[in-house]
């Protein structure tokens, strides 16, 4: 019994110290050492002080240890801000990129991050910086690099004739 809070006896204090040496996380190790000190009979204040924490932090660590075992001693993942574009909006963006721009509608002949930022603001009503567009593309497995620009009225057959035989002579 630890004060009024019972500590789980799944591991002994020496097993907790051994686990702390090999866990790879300094904060989790400190929590384990504090609990091991308390299991050895030290007061709550002294056990916490020796591990470099406050009594309340030790109490929280004991609650997490009792609930989840040594896995509960690791830091919990922090929350992240939600994606600026939803999954369906990102899918629409990817489809538009693969389809390519229509110069008469989109006003550009190749997609750039700046052009995509304008397209996103028109399509979804969300203002986004071009650098953020590049990050969204990388997260979705695409590159911000673009192909060489091609004029929309390019004659592919004329280019082929020129590259194979050179200019036709009269």
SSE arrangement:
Blueprint: H1 13-22, H2 26-39, H3 44-50, H4 55-68, H5 87-99, H6 103-106, H7 113-124, H8 130-139, H9 156-165
Helix pairs in contact: 1-2, 2-3, 2-4, 3-4, 7-8
- The gyration radius over C-alpha positions equals 31 Å
Cα end-to-end separation: 104 Å
How would you state the average pLDDT, rounded? 86
Largest sheet: none
Order of helices and strands: HHHHHHHHH
- Helix residue percentage: 55-70%
Number of helices: 9
> Quick one: overall form?
rod-shaped
Can you tell me the residue ranges where pLDDT is under 50 for at least 5 consecutive residues?
Answer: none
Percent strand: under 5%
Compute the number of strand runs: 0
SS class: mainly alpha
Number of domains: 2
Can you walk me through this structure?
This protein has 170 residues and is mostly helical. The protein has 2 domains: 13-73, no CATH class; 87-151, no CATH class. 55% of the residues lie in helices and 0% in strands. It is built from 9 helices and no strands. Helix 2 (26-39) packs across helix 4 (55-68). It is rod-shaped, with a radius of gyration of 31 Å. It starts with 12 loop residues before the first helix and ends in a 5-residue tail after the last helix.
């Amino acid at each position: 019994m630890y004060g009024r809070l019972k500590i789980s006896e799944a591991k002994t204090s020496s097993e907790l110290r051994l686990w702390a040496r090999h866990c790879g996380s300094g904060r989790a190790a400190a929590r384990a050492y504090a609990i091991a000190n308390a299991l050895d009979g030290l007061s709550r204040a002294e056990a916490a002080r020796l591990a470099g924490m406050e009594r309340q932090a030790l109490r929280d660590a004991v609650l997490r240890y009792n609930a989840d075992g040594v896995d509960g001693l690791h830091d919990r993942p922090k929350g992240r801000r939600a994606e600026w574009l939803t999954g369906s909006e990102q899918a629409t963006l990817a489809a538009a990129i693969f389809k390519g721009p229509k110069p008469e509608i989109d006003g550009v002949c190749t997609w750039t991050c700046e052009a995509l930022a304008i397209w996103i603001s028109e399509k979804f009503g969300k203002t986004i910086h071009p650098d953020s567009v590049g990050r969204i593309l990388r997260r979705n497995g695409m590159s911000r690099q673009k192909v060489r620009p091609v004029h929309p009225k390019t004659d592919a057959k004329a280019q082929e004739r020129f590259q194979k035989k050179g200019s036709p002579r009269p």
